[in-house]
Amino acid sequence: MYYEIALDLPKANFDFYAGGGFLKPTTTADKKEAPSIFPIIEEAGYTIAKGIDDFKVKSTQADKMILIQKDGANPSCLPYSIDRKDGDMTLAEITESAVSFLTKGKNKGFFLMVEGGKIDWACHSNDPATVFEEVIDMDNAIKVAYEFYKKHPKETLIVVTADHETGGLGLGTGKYELHLKALKNQKQSQDLLSTAITDLRKAKGHNVTWEDAKALLVEKMGFWKELPLTWEQEKMLRDEFEQSFVKNKVVFEETLYSKTEPLAATARKVMSQIAMIGWTSGSHTAEYVPVYAVGAGSKEFAGKYDNTEIPKRIAKVAGYK
After folding, report:
1. Are 271 and 134 in contact (CB under 8 A)?
2. What is the mean pLDDT of residues 210-223?
């Protein structure tokens, strides 16, 4: 219901929204053509900015703002941090833009919610390097909020948490070791590696050799060149190559947010082995999630409790009825 949810934004009447964009701006949930969401939003008093530079130009005169990616970018989401190109918005930039917009010319408080939503996506895929880069990206956004807190420590509350854990991520897989630095050799998300493997298949058809596949994995994952593989790990990759390229039995791995070439999925499993990261699931788990809080009323957030308590405690601290 992308279109219907877009219509709810001006109805909710919040001052500031930001994200990748509008996925289906002219198509309803029952696949019927509908008036474009953009003029509807603008008529409701919102200024639409496309990218950070456009935001800086428009924000001073805007009463209410919607910040999205530039034209031509994927409107469904921001790219993974590991895949980001120049000009792509970051979560830190969005947070900085939100804080500056909500505080301009006003001497009153505000409530802001920021989500590092693709941590979950990468965990569904059990893609460790992409997960870690997304967490760092979220941490950079929290730094922006923390800098604001340092200027207003007595009246600012920051709460950082998650709605659930995904993937059953475990650090350590047997030996008393952890090799997380290995993840720095992965150059792209599993999604883009999958695309590169598909492109190789399209370009060379049945003539793709094991050396072709190895060269791609050297470039994208650092295997063999930077990261030595065990005999078993190379066999995993070679067996999958034989299955999907030689025998042409290509069974894409499907998770909630992606469809992945089998060789890319196997490469991801090998990377987890090298880094000594374990996974129990491709879905949500029942693990506890941490809640971090700093600032005014942060003592309310100690102990174990149901996540539905969090908005109640925020409301209590803020004095909302």
Report:
1. no
2. 97
